[in-house]
Amino acid sequence: MAGGKCLALIAHDQKKDDMAAFARANRDILSRWKIVATGTTGGRVLDAAPDLDVVRLKSGPLGGDQQIGALISTGEVDALIFFVDPLTPMPHDVDVKALMRLAIVYDIPMALNHATAIKLLPTLKA
């Protein structure tokens, strides 16, 4: 992924509606970013805000979380917004934990819920 700042967007199934609404409501700020997203989340974001520059990767359980982790480790992702559902067990929980670990190791801004994402957005420089 060449040029420009890149934001990763991920949402667990029960949070995909929230992510779509977040993208729609914040399309002006998000439009300044290249966005990578896991497959279904990316599709929902594009449905809500078709003018955004979104690259859809694989679905999270099929490797999308790991793809985003790889982009973080190579310095290609500058921030992560991940709407986590803490109440639903995830079969790919180890992938989610690995992704969050990489965001911490590489010291990129990370929001795990809507309230934090709203606070994070204005601080991001595209």
Automatic annotation (TrEMBL):
Substrate binds at H12, K16, T38, G39, T40, T41, S59, G60, H92. The keyword Lyase applies. Keywords: Lyase. Its EC number is 4.2.3.3. SMART domains: MGS. The active site is at D65. GO terms for molecular function: methylglyoxal synthase activity. Residues 1-126 form the MGS-like domain. Catalyzes the formation of methylglyoxal from dihydroxyacetone phosphate. This is Methylglyoxal synthase. The lineage of its organism: Bacteria, Pseudomonadati, Pseudomonadota, Alphaproteobacteria, Hyphomicrobiales. The gene is mgsA.
